[in-house]
Amino acid sequence: MTYPLYDAEKRLFAFEIGNLGIDRRGVCRIVETIPGVTLTRRPKLLSWFREQVFCEFLVDGAEYIAEERWDDNSRYWIGPNPPRWLPQTEKVHRTFARR
Fold it and tell me: Over the stretch 70-88, which tens digit does the pLDDT of each residue have?
């Protein structure tokens, strides 16, 4: 399940996914299936203990991240870095919504 996040103009700028049933490496595996993506950083050993941002990737040249914003949260945040509206976010969101 995804939780879309919209800006003041009602444009999708990021989204969250529940992390039950999917770990950080699983997020990266899904990211790799997105057309036009280059994965630039995977989770390190014990990333859940020491990394808020655990996955970085480029979508058609735009930088995106996946992070667990509030430590031990039940959701992962996925969106551009820095957070803002980009048209590529729709493509990323569609891929996660289909899983």
Answer: 766 789 999 999 999 999 9
CA nearest to 64, candidates 45, 46, 44, 86? 86
Cβ neighbours of residue 74 under 8 Å, at least 6 residues apart? 18, 19, 20
Q: How many CA atoms lie within 13 A of 57 on its CB side?
A: 26
Encoded amino acid at 25, one letter = R
Q: Nearest 10 degrees: CA dihedral of 35, 15, 1, 72?
A: 120
Phi first, then psi: give them for residue 63, nearest 5 degrees.
-80, 130
Instruction: Judge contact between 14 and 26, C-beta under 8 A.
Output: no
